[in-house]
Amino acid sequence: MTTDLISRARAGDGDAFRALTEPHRRELQVHCYRMLGSLQDAEDALQDTLLSAWQGLAGFAERSSLRTWLYRIATNRCLNTLRSAGRRPAKEWNIPGVEPPEPTRLGEVAWLEPFPDALLDGAIDVPLGPEARYEQTESISLAFVTALQLLPPRQLAVLVLRDVLGFHANEVAEMLDSTVESVTSALKRARGGLRRQRPATDREPPPASGSTDEDAIVAKFVSAYASADLDALVALLTDDVFMSMPPMPLEYEGRDVVARFCASVFGSGARFDFLPARANGQPALGAYLRAPTGVRHGTGLFVLTLTGDRICAMARFDGGVLPWFGLPRSLPGR
Fold first, then answer.
1. Name one GO biological process term (predicted).
2. Each residue of 145-186: pLDDT tens digit?
3. What is the per-residue pLDDT for 92?
4. Which SS3 state, helix, strand or coil, does residue 273 take?
5. pLDDT tens, 112-146?
6. Helix, strand or coil for residue 105?
7. Sign of CA pseudo-dihedral 29, 80, 168, 163
8. What's the CATH number where 16 sits?
9. What is the Cα–Cα distance from 304 to 307, expressed in whole angstroms?
10. Taking 70 as the threshold, does the pLDDT of residue 85 lie above it?
11. Which domain range does residue 140 map to?
């Protein structure tokens, strides 16, 4: 059947080409997202990949599977994007009436974007090679994707192909027009870099996705933030809680400084309502600022990282991402 579809697609049959590539579309999109850290960039890379595959199908020699061939194209499209100088710049602080405290540091991955869980269906339950080292849910988490962005492009590609997807070293070498020795060396360096970015911890595992325990923590966060109850909010945080705000580079680490940031928001008089979502396999919340007119305007998306019954990380993204999660840009008065 596949051979017949390839023959028809080579003859210009668009339906046959879609039948060949559609089963791999979502996993390729997730692959591009892991490499680029941006849903928009991942979608552009995916479209470029499919166009290149359509135009280059005559050169597909069928020495490898079609899936492997598509991963080769997608990986190299992502590498071209990473090597280009046109990445989006960090954004200046632009929240009126709120004076943020001095950040712990300025983050290096300001262009990070969240990935809707709705797009993960059929994308992270694909068969993996025997050498994969990460659970698929872990490898889509915000912390993991952020750490990947700090690796040199070639090391990033090798680590994702080898340790996340489980391709053999010789397959990766062919994808990257390299040698097995070069791939092995790059993987060693990438693993070392990832360990430095994500040192091992003895954190409790998070509650199961969609469980009553997870729902309870999220509900406490919503109650505390919506009512500007700083003490209740701080009680939910781990001592080393980490907060980031892409595309603004401000990063805060530690309960005290995160509490000061939240106090500056609450002290401005801003009050919010929230709608639930899910991003990167984690609970997320659309945040809506209450206006004097009663209308509530979407201002951002919070993605929470949980450990046990606490919150160990919060990422706040711009309100422009809300439609990606099926959330409205505003809510009517009530």
1. DNA-templated transcription initiation
2. 999 999 999 999 999 999 999 999 999 999 999 999 999 999
3. 82
4. strand
5. 999 999 999 878 777 777 778 888 888 999 999 99
6. strand
7. negative
8. 1.10.1740.10
9. 10
10. no
11. 131-196
CA distance 139 to 281: 10
* Mean pLDDT score, 70-84: 94
Residue 124 falls inside a structural domain: no
Under 8 Å between Cβ of 160 and 167: no
DSSP 8-state secondary structure symbol assigned to residue 139: G
Does residue 98 form part of some domain? Answer: no
Q: How far apart are CA 283 and CA 242, in angstroms?
A: 16
Burial-class residue 142 by CB neighbours within 10 Å (0-12, 13-18, 19+).
Answer: buried
Q: Does the pLDDT value for residue 197 go beyond 90?
A: no
Q: Give the CA distances from residue 81 to residues 48, 114, 115, 310, in Å, rounded to whole numbers and listed in that order.
A: 11, 18, 18, 37
Quick check: 112 and 149 in contact, CB under 8 A?
yes
Cα(288)–Cα(72) distance, integer angstroms? 41
How far does Cα 14 stand from its chain's mean position? 31
Token pair belonging to 112:
């990070």
d(CA 75, CA 183): 14
**Is there a single domain that holds both residue 151 and residue 255?**
no
Length of the chain: 334
